[in-house]
Write a structure and sequence with these properties.
Elements lengths: L6 H10 L1 H16 L6 H26 L7 H18 L4 H25 L4 H20 L4 E2 L3 H8 L1 E2 L2 E2 H19 L1 H11 L1 H6 L4 H27 L1 E2 L7 H11 L11 H20 L4 H41 L9
Antiparallel strand pairs: 1-4, 2-3
């Protein structure tokens, strides 16, 4: 029996994993075009920086799957850093307690966003935009607008440590991605998240508690953002009230480039991981090539628009295919039999 995959199967696989294919192609091009790109120090820098964005993207994926969005992530990173720095430096609390406090603060604000989105008619865009201002304002208020340094070498090593020359933050992110993949694909709550994004009304009629699912995803996004804030604070050895600016935009872009749909119900953890790494690789290539930061923003913007356009086309194709299949089913069913009831 021939076990070699047929060209048709290969094409189907590539069609379902376009972000992974794009990542391999872009990475290979970087290795050939830029000799310093494959240097271990450069790859470590990508891993350190984008594993932090990766945690945000995992949280953003959960929210986007339910047709929502979380614009507060960057501000929550800043708030987490300030809470941790304040508890360690000013309150003198043990580092584990401070870390728990920072993650808890981010999770609670994520929970509050979910409460407002799920229990009111306020759009997620407005709710999380307001939470962006609240979190940033709290960070500035607690720190009086100034960075707070952390003189704790053990805590600093948390964000800079390596395991067998692999950044520990990258390992933690990939482990979190595996757990989230299992949750979304193997657990009932994960399937409910996809159902809510596909059609909230249909999910409700099927017995899914739509409000609680929406509350859950925003709380989980806040928790994952808090983990990112811990790693970010550890790398800097300080808390900054102005940190994390535009991080939420990068996480949204990573989910979309990874095949996620802003209309909900479509997206995978694997695609999101590939989307994060695509942005990390491209950003590194642009820096090594000496491209102006202004052009870098333009190039990333074009990439995001192209990904959204592709997502729209795929969504339209799926709709057309379902419509044709439904029409064919109705046609083959024949005319309805007359009722015997008089």
């Amino acid at each position: 029996m021939n076990r070699n995959p047929s060209p048709a199967r290969v094409r189907r696989w590539m069609g379902r994993n376009t972000s992974t294919v794009a990542l391999v192609v872009i990475f290979a091009f970087g290795c050939v075009a830029l000799p310093n790109f494959a240097d271990k120090f450069n790859l470590s820098a990508i891993a350190f920086q984008y594993s932090i964005i990766g945690f945000l993207a995992l949280g953003q994926l959960l929210v986007i799957l339910t047709e929502g969005i979380d614009l507060s992530q960057g501000s929550l990173v800043a708030l987490t850093s300030i809470v941790i720095a304040t508890l360690i430096t000013h309150a003198g609390l043990p580092t584990p307690v401070a870390i728990l406090g920072g993650v808890l603060a981010s999770t609670l604000l994520g929970f509050l966003s979910g409460l407002l989105v799920s229990r009111t008619q306020i759009p997620a865009f407005i709710v999380t935009l307001g939470m962006l201002g609240i979190a940033r304002g709290l960070a500035l208020l607690i720190s009086i607008g100034k960075p707070i340094s952390i003189a704790d070498e053990v805590f600093a090593d948390l964000g800079r440590s390596k395991v067998w020359e692999i950044p520990a933050s990258l390992i933690l992110w990939l482990l979190a991605a595996l757990l989230l993949h299992y949750f979304l694909t193997q657990r009932r709550l994960g399937r409910h998240i996809y159902a809510v994004g596909g059609s909230a009304e249909s999910a409700r009629l099927s017995g899914v508690n739509v409000r609680n699912i929406k509350l859950l995803v925003y709380a989980m996004s806040g928790f994952l953002t808090g983990i990112a804030g811990v790693l970010w604070t550890s790398r800097l050895s300080s808390g900054s009230p102005i940190g994390g600016v535009n991080y939420e935009l990068e996480s949204i872009a990573a989910v979309v480039v990874g095949g996620g749909s802003l209309f909900g119900g479509i997206g995978t953890v694997g695609g999101t991981v590939a989307g994060v790494l695509i942005f990390g690789v491209i950003n590194s290539m642009l820096n090594l090539a000496g491209i102006s930061p202004y052009w870098q923003g333009t190039i990333k913007g074009v990439l995001i628009l192209a990904a959204v356009a592709l997502s729209q086309l795929r969504r339209a194709d799926r709709t057309n295919v379902r419509g044709v299949a439904r029409h064919a089913s109705d046609s083959t069913a024949g005319p309805a039999k007359p009722s015997r009831n008089i």
